[in-house]
Amino acid sequence: MSRSPHASPWSLPLRLLGFLGWFIGQFVLTSLHVVALIVTPGKVPEPGIVKLSMDELSDTEVTLLLALITITPDTLVIAVDREEGSMFVHGMFVAGDPEGFRASLRATHDRLLFGLRARPSRSLAQGGVA
Q1: pLDDT of residue 1
Q2: How far apart, in Å, are the Cα atoms of 18 and each of 13, 24, 60, 97, 110?
Q3: What's the pTM value of the predicted model, to 2 decimals?
């Protein structure tokens, strides 16, 4: 597996802080989206369920990913299949763009791993931070 030159173990604290800042921003944006849904008369959610493939994750990484997805106001993990390496996620605003929703979940997955792993792969550095 190819390693990123920008992802040394010494950069771990900065990468973790970067992930936390990004996640807090995403949390605020989704909270505002849900509030707008609540206060706008006639506006209805378009819920849906998508399947998200997970990379080889440790038990700790799976737990953190599930917690982060579930505490986000418009999402909920409803099932995890460790043998297949996938999870099913319910979202309030999926029906119009399931691929976009899946891409946002993948971004959370990739950014989490880039922020947590001492030596993340180059693909996480390119896909998770770009």
Answers
A1: 45
A2: 9, 10, 19, 27, 13
A3: 0.79
